[in-house]
Structures are given as C-alpha cells and as structure tokens.
Design brief:
alpha+beta, binds zinc ion, 3 helices, globular, lyase, carbon-sulfur lyase activity, zinc, 15% helix, Mss4-like_sf, glutathione-dependent formaldehyde- activating enzyme (gfa), 8-stranded mixed sheet, 3-stranded antiparallel sheet
C-alpha cells in the first residue's frame, strides 16, 4: 500500500514534486524565511518551505541546481529551480543530511506555517502571523530544535 501523496508543479509544468499527504499539513514543519537570499532567489517577500525527509519526496523532471554560497550562515545551500520557468522547487542544506525544504508556493493548497525565520529582515509593515513561532534568524540548536530535527529524520512526522 502506498501512502497518499499530494503534488505541486512549477509554473511551466515541467517539474513536479510529490510529498506524503500526512506531511503536507504539519504546521510545525512549515516555515517562512525572510532572509535576503530566499527573497532574491524567489523575487518574493519570503520563502515558504515544507521541511521533511528527502526520501519521502519525489521530484519528476530535472531541476537546475544553484549553489548559493553567499548565505548568512556561511553554509552553501543547493537551490533547485526550473530551468525553463524559474520556479523555485526545493533547497537542501548540507548541514542537515537527508532533509529537504520543498517550496510550497508550487502547490495548489497553501497550508499554514508554524515558524518564521530571519524575522529581523522582515519589513516593518509586514505583520507577524498569529500562532507562528518567530525567530530573529536561524533557530538556536536547542533540545527542542534537535528533537524536531530527529523527528524529521525518522519520518515520524
Ligand atoms: Zn517550469
Ligand atoms: Zn532564507
């Protein structure tokens, strides 16, 4: 039996991504990121990401990878986007092996995020969202954060 999945695709339709239905609505695994690099890479106010185990994600089509080495943290992120229409598809942080951040803007449904990162870079006129955990930059590596990462690795989300 295969678990039911939900799919999104880039603007031109060449690349599609499916994730487990169960993971899709996990508010605590959905984040907005207001950092400058996310903004520039999407031409938008914030990136909108679903964090989950890479093995649970199926990508069809061949995205182009941009190695983003000018990040605030110093880590080189792999940013995947459609080579034809430019839609951001996902990003991978090599510090967190086995995890992936899928860009939720390519899906029809838009589930609510549970966290916001790099709020220090958010413009003052953009208000915080009710019930969303705010972080000035990256979350600190607290016990809570480590447990959350472990749950993502285990796929017990
Ligand atoms: Zn495309
Ligand atoms: Zn970011």
């Amino acid at each position: 039996m295969t678990a039911s999945t939900i799919s999104g695709k880039c603007l031109c339709g060449q690349i599609s991504v499916s994730v487990p239905q169960a993971a899709f609505h996990k508010t605590e695994n959905i984040g907005l990121c207001y950092c400058k690099n996310c903004r520039q890479s999407g031409g938008c106010l914030a990136s909108y990401n679903l964090h989950l185990a890479e093995r649970d994600v199926k990508v069809q089509g061949q995205p182009k990878i941009y190695h983003d080495n000018n990040t605030d943290s110093g880590t080189t992120l792999e940013r995947a986007f459609c080579n034809d229409c430019g839609s951001p598809i996902y990003h991978i942080n090599p510090k967190f092996i086995g995890l992936i951040a899928v860009k939720l803007g390519i899906f029809d449904q838009l589930p609510k995020p549970g966290m916001a990162l790099y709020c220090k870079d958010r413009p003052h006129w953009n208000k915080a969202i009710d019930g969303v955990e705010e972080h000035e930059d990256m979350p600190k590596l607290t016990e809570h954060f480590k447990m959350w990462l472990q749950k993502l690795y285990d796929g017990s989300i």
